[in-house]
Design brief:
mainly alpha, 5-stranded mixed sheet, two-stranded antiparallel sheet, 49% helix, elongated
């Protein structure tokens, strides 16, 4: 008896067609070709992609034709087919009146080979009657399809052809999230540049020669001194404040409502000396005043204070007077990268974690790791580099080329160095998916169960734990849709034999990766706050390097990924049915 699945496929492809020349032999060849290739598709596990039709009712007009078809299919399956040799691959495609393939639209990949020179015709067939009849040709080739391709495709029934893609319901949401994330990323970078530029402007005021700015700087220093004295009257007064205050009070004003600083111009000399000695008495007060003056006539003053206050609230630590923070910019860049990742996932896989879903429709641990490291490391690097650009800017580059300037800036390198430990973390996270991709194809790609070796043989010994690189694998778990992917996949085995079992090596890898990423993130958060002394006395850019994480960090990361990859290479083995019988 012929295979019922194969019969259903052959009947679905041939019940509506008739040979153009009216020959029963041409129709029988079509049935034979479809029978051979449908059986091959089923063997590869792809028969679900072929169109099927149940047999007609007994006694109907089609029943006799179905019986003749069964004879042909049984002959092919039994090896008694006496016709011309059957092809290794075939396709049914519509042709024009001139006999050439209809190319109104680009050929789908499944039938793109039908225009090759070595393709033969297996006969022409008509679908429909009278003026509605459409002409199709059976294209044949001796070149076999690869293991992951269907050997047969049909434009009559749609077998093996790409199915029309349903409209993505998340498309508009994905675009909205993506655009918003891109805007957040750009704004975060712009804020980092602006913060650096603002602090650079304040630092330039320490050596200004503009009389207007000099007077405004002295005024701001005087008022800070008075406020500080009232807040802490028993504290030691700096020499700078002693030069400006009169009896610890604000000096008197002249008829133009301006302070008389004729006796305190030496404070300007003190300000110019602060970059060389930032911890000098009074420099902190002068620096705080310079920040206020630098933003006095623009909207930036309120924003600068808001960013500093927000950063202090988020970090839980109130920064010292005169310090600055780019924590808000850093978090905006992290959120921007994360938002772009979510948007891409929704747009391609219709899942928030779609970027993590691989070609087998499983959530990939390797993809998740690369994404996390990219978001944290790239956001930190971008924040620090753009701050450096704003802080040094063109003036810094010019000073570097001239061998230094009034502020002592002798070098200019906006982009921070990447320590070996950070480079190793990024490299390991990127290389691990590549090595994983080399290991996975060594498993049984068809997903069909490999015959187990006979108990007690050498093969059985290998099956019990020795085999690596697909020697005895039962195949990889594959799912029909990204909707079946689950976050739990990052903890579960990837092969058919252990897909429902927690893989301890993957659990270990997740815990270690989470620990290292959170630790690195915390270090970057701490780096975003820059002290006043560092800003005043900077001889170059502020952020010269990402944090050095150390050899222990790298060793832990290497050990974790090595264990994970070795476990991936090892073939998961189910319990032998013979063992189950013995145990029972």
């Amino acid at each position: 008896m012929a295979d019922t699945d194969v019969l259903a496929v052959v009947w679905g492809e041939t019940n509506r067609v008739t040979s153009k020349d009216g020959s029963n032999a041409t129709l029988a060849r079509l049935e034979a070709v479809v029978a051979k290739l449908a059986a091959l598709a089923k063997k590869r596990g792809f028969d679900s992609n072929l169109s099927k039709l149940p047999p007609p009712r007994v006694g109907s007009q089609q029943a006799l034709r179905y019986q003749k078809m069964m004879v042909t299919v049984e002959a092919v399956e039994g090896g008694t087919w006496s016709g011309a040799a059957l092809p290794a691959r075939a396709a049914i495609w519509e042709i024009t009146i001139n006999g050439s393939p209809r190319l109104d639209q680009p050929l789908p990949k499944a039938v793109s080979w039908i225009t090759d020179q070595d393709v033969a015709s297996g006969g022409d067939f008509v679908v429909g009657d009278g003026s509605d009849g459409r002409l199709y040709r059976l294209f044949e080739t001796e070149k076999a399809a690869s293991d992951h391709q269907l050997p047969f495709a049909s434009a009559v029934t749609g077998s093996g052809m790409p199915k029309p893609e349903a409209a993505n319901p998340f498309r508009k949401i994905a675009w909205a999230i993506g655009i918003t994330a891109a805007v957040v990323f750009v704004l975060g970078g712009a804020l980092s540049v602006w913060t650096g530029r603002s602090l650079s402007d304040a630092r330039n005021l320490l050596v200004t020669t503009n009389p207007t700015y000099q007077y405004e700087l002295l005024t701001a220093v005087t008022e800070f001194c008075a406020v500080d004295y009232k807040a802490f009257p028993d504290g030691a007064q700096s020499a700078v404040c002693g030069k400006l205050l009169e009896g610890n009070e604000l000096p008197s004003k002249n008829s133009e409502e301006r302070y008389d600083f004729s006796q305190a111009v030496s404070v300007l000399a003190d300000a110019k000396s602060c970059p060389a000695a930032p911890s000098k008495d009074g420099c902190n007060t002068i620096w705080r005043a310079a920040i206020v003056v630098g933003q006095k006539h623009s909207w930036k003053a309120g924003l600068f204070q808001f960013l500093n206050d927000t950063s202090a609230s988020l970090s839980g630590v109130t920064s010292a007077a005169g310090s600055a923070s780019v924590l808000v910019s850093f978090l905006m860049l992290v959120c921007g990268i994360a938002g772009l990742t979510v948007a891409l996932g929704l747009g391609t896989k219709q899942r928030v974690a779609g970027v993590w879903i691989d070609t087998r429709n499983r959530v990939s641990l390797a993809r998740a790791q690369v994404t996390l490291w990219t978001a944290v490391a790239l956001a930190g690097y971008t924040t620090f580099a753009l701050f450096n650009v704003g802080f040094a800017g063109i003036a810094g580059a010019a000073a570097a080329s001239a061998g230094g300037g009034a502020l002592g800036i002798s070098t200019f390198g906006a982009f921070p160095a990447i320590p070996a430990s950070v480079a190793a973390a990024l490299g390991i996270a990127a290389v691990s998916p590549m090595l994983s991709a080399l290991i996975l194809p060594t498993k049984d790609a068809t997903g069909n169960k490999v015959d187990l070796a006979i108990r007690g043989s050498d093969g059985d010994l290998r099956r019990r734990g020795a085999p690596f690189f697909g020697a005895e694998s039962e195949g990889l778990e594959k799912r029909a849709s990204p909707r079946l992917a689950s976050i739990a996949d990052i903890f579960m085995g990837e092969e058919i034999a252990n897909a429902d079992t927690v893989d301890v090596s993957r659990l270990q890898n997740v815990v270690i990766t989470t620990t290292l990423v959170l630790g690195f993130f915390s270090i970057l958060v701490a780096m975003t706050t820059v002290g006043a002394d560092q800003l005043i006395g900077a001889k170059a850019v502020i952020f010269t390097s990402l944090p050095e994480l150390g050899a222990t960090f790298t060793a832990l990361l290497v050990a974790s990924h090595t264990t994970y990859l070795i476990s991936k290479a090892h073939d998961a083995q189910p319990l032998n049915p013979l063992d189950q019988q013995v145990d029972s």
